[in-house]
Amino acid sequence: MATKAYILIETSVGKSKEVVAAVRKLEGVKSVDMVTGPYDLIVVAELGDLNSVGELITSKIHPVPGITRTVTCLAVRPA
Length: 79
Hints:
- By secondary structure, this protein is of the alpha+beta class.
- The protein has a single domain (3-74), classed as Lrp/AsnC effector binding domain/regulation of amino acid metabolism (RAM) domain (Alpha-Beta Plaits).
- The chain is built from 2 helices and 4 strands; from the N terminus they run βαββαβ.
- A 4-stranded antiparallel beta sheet has the order 2-3-1-4.
- The chain starts with a strand and ends in a 5-residue tail after the last strand.
């Protein structure tokens, strides 16, 4: 079963559209939405396992220019 994560992203002022365009291209990203509130974007990603989610965030999302902070929430499924 795939591991699903919600990645909340804060961006630099005026950089949201560029970040959306970059993040949408990443493997495992299912959706990217611009939102109001304390975060600028919410990304939904699904990958094979927890390590793949960690790799996506640390190696592919964090280096995107314009991202200032991320918070990752893993989806849990009741037994």
